[in-house]
Amino acid sequence: SLTYAGDLAREIATTARRLLDSEWYQANWGDRFSIDPRQDNKERFDTSLGGTRISTSFGGVALGRGADIKIIDDPIKPDEAESETIRDSVNRTYDETLRNRVTDPRHSAEVIIMQRLNEGDLSGHVITTDPDFVHLCLPMEYEQARHCVTVIGFEDPREEEGELLWPERFDLKTLEPFKRSPYQWSGQYQQAPAPRGGGIFKREWWQLWEPPDEKWPPFDYLVGSLDSAFTAKEENDPSGMTVWGIFK
Predict the structure, then answer these.
(1) Residue 11 and residue 105: Cα distance in Å, rounded?
(2) What is the pTM of this model?
């Protein structure tokens, strides 16, 4: 397994080792293989059947080895995802080094687990460049227009617009503070990252009009723009309208 930082990789490795040593695991699967109790290196340990589990940071020592199963968990830090240089470095490392590090391409598996941090992060990169990947997308609030059905048989069970993914743990009150940060909410919770400065229309272009007399100025021209949703598709958004006033 690989992640963005060595410390986090060690934490994941320690958790995995504790799981394998737990009474619950040993009672259910302990007869399948064993781990030498004297092997105290949690970042790498071998099984009695010749298998090896390695946990390291992205770009670390594991890139020189092959694997049957690769798990990439958060390959980039949230505060570094805005850097095009770092994103390109992660994606290039994956394409040129990690992708082909497999023991047997016919019997291998790869899983990438991450929150969406940027349109060009590793998830966005593989979604647009590798059609063989199965994309499992589960927004915190359900969106009918992005209903997820995978080729491996899983389908998002939710049907109601806005239905929460795990309301028993993350209810509306718990999520409310996170929704105040629209870019964080859109990417990390809804899995739909948006450019922080805006797309076609930049956020910095918009300013509030504060007339001294608290009245609108006389407009030279008025424009009403209607985005209608009057079609047979039920997943379309509601109709929206804006009114624009032009003045000198």
Answers:
(1) 29
(2) 0.70
